[in-house]
Amino acid sequence: MSLPRAIGALAAAVALLAPAGAAAKPPIDFHDARYCEILVLTGEVPDATVTVFNTIGLNDCPPAKWEAIDAGSLASELGAKAVILNGPRHFLMDSATGNPGPVRSFDGLRMREVATIPIRTAAELVQSTYTERTIARHNTWTWEAGRRVYELLAPDGSNYVMQSYSQIRDPSLTIGQLRSLGGRLALPTGWSYRTRVLKRDLTLRAHGAATIVQDDLTNTYQRLPRRSTAERHRVDVAGVTRTTGSPAPQTLEDQGTVSGDPFGDGTVDVVVKLADGQATGTFRIDADRGSAFGTVAMTYVITGNEIDFTGTATFTGGTGEYRGITGDVPAHDHNTLDGQNGTITLNGFVDY
Q1: Which of 6, 182, 187, 196, by CA, is between 20 and 30 Å from 216?
Q2: What is the reported pLDDT for 28?
Q3: Which residues does 26 contact at the CB level (< 8 Å), separation at least 6?
């Protein structure tokens, strides 16, 4: 990777790295606020430095001014090793706190210094898609209840919320297109994209470090915090399902809706293989505050036109509020043989 491309990859990760402190004044409407950044690289590795300048709170990065900036000429003017133009982008949070730095003008475009980042190795300049990067920063971002958020879910249960969308690779991308963005992304195996409306405020705090990932359109996401200690929670779930397909011989997939503690209202997807009076497979519950998944092992008995399953649902992981969920829960599923009248219950305790 060339040096300019490497710095450009880093750029999306470091927006608004200002130290934590009082909210910027005057108040800024961050949601869908357009901004641009200039990254200035000086020095040589291991003593190189990237200084980040951002337009947020000063202007909306007028296209004419932004497109008129020549990175090479600006680097020469500043005596820098390289200058990278990062933008335009749009923030998605509703509010942020931080102490912004001094303001200066680049070819008539006013920008504020928001970070100075030491670069010790060339590897620190590289950002791969769907790969975690931990960066140094202090700030607090808040999405208000009722706001729609856009998230990446990783196979290990990590959950990342989009902090900004990018118009670098797709200049026509708008906030209205984010609901269907998952269909455009080249997601790695096991990853998924989802969108949901918050029922309560979501606040992300970075006390010195934040973990981020980028998708293949250079949209940037921050990882939600992982729970440091597990607590016991009661599971009291009831739902209705119907068979929607047969992914393989002697295998059935049931989908439906569930409600009850601790998930509230959500959807469920169960895939089981039937053999010798045993049903084994997997399940996934998706709810507003996250997802939970695991395995099922049940025996079944057929009586007339009905089938009755009794056994255990084992939670092995989750996302969002249910990250790290574990536990064995008694499970019961009753259905007609055509699979169109299922009822399920889960009653027990889990830890997360």
Answers
A1: 196
A2: 78
A3: 57
